[in-house]
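> call design_seq(struct)
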């Protein structure tokens, strides 16, 4: 859009005298405010209570898209999509509760707006979580999955791994693998029929816990492999157990932005860019390099 300041002259009014100047100024300001509200509606929100929200905003910016920090329920009215970042899901849930965000977050999901949860954000989106702290924690839900909160162990068992990501590579180009950064990461143990698995990860079968168990096994990894799910899509919801915002590979972000475009097709719902220009498919080829956030 570039510079869209509007004056009455431009919308067809002819000023007859000097006295009209203040009226012109006032109406120009009103139109400017209205337009600015319309364009804010098209930004991507990032829940900014705790965790890696800055890194998501930086990743969006690398794609030319404006990310808006969300801390209050009413701010959800002004965005077309939301990212729930990684962090610590119990802490994030307490803060979300304190700010009365859960009802608005649930409405946002139910309205069909695109929401992407990474790591703790994935836990938030799951219909069911196991391995929670005593007393559990509130979830937003919507994603027909059972998530184990700390499936891969404690902070020191964090790791990086190459994941096969056929759907991502198909849609976004680039290599068939994605380097997943797992920080005290959750995993999806069960997913409903409407959930599309975008990536899984091999685990020794003795590590595998069934969803009725909240206990983590730290036994030796010598058994034959099973698999856990680490990236899914279900309609308007995207979930990743790892942290794409900590890599320079922005393909998950551009994949999510395409979900926003899909929802917005045929409507006024589109993404606002940092420089105000429309985001085209080939404008930002993915940067495939490592390491990670610096
Ligand atoms: N397992 C953590 C939790 O329960 C999430 C870790 C992360 O977001 N990196 O909140």
């Amino acid at each position: 859009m570039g510079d869209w300041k509007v004056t009455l002259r431009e919308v067809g009014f002819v000023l007859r005298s000097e006295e009209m100047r203040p009226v012109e100024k006032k109406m120009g300001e009103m139109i400017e405010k209205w337009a600015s509200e319309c364009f804010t509606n098209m930004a991507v929100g990032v829940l900014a209570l705790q965790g890696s929200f800055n890194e998501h905003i930086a990743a969006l910016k690398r794609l030319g898209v404006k990310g808006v920090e969300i801390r209050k329920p009413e701010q959800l009215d002004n965005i077309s999509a939301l990212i729930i970042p990684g962090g610590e899901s119990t802490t994030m849930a307490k803060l979300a509760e304190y700010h009365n965000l859960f009802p608005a977050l649930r409405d946002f999901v139910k309205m069909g707006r695109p929401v992407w949860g990474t790591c703790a954000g994935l836990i938030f989106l799951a219909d069911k979580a196991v391995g929670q702290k005593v007393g559990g924690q509130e979830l937003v839900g919507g994603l027909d999955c059972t998530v184990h909160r700390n499936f891969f162990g404690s902070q020191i068992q964090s790791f990086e791994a190459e994941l096969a990501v056929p759907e991502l590579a198909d849609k976004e180009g680039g290599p068939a693998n994605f380097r997943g950064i797992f920080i005290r990461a959750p995993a999806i143990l069960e997913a409903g029929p409407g959930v599309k698995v975008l990536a899984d990860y091999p685990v020794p079968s003795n590590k595998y816990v069934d969803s009725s168990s909240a206990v983590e096994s730290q036994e030796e990894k010598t058994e034959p492999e099973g698999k856990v799910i680490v990236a899914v899509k279900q309609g308007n919801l995207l979930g990743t157990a790892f942290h794409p915002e900590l890599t320079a590979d922005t393909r998950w972000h551009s994949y999510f932005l395409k979900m926003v475009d899909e929802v917005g097709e045929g409507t006024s719902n589109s993404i606002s860019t940092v420089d105000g220009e429309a985001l085209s498919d080939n404008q930002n080829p993915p940067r495939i390099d490592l390491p990670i956030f610096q």
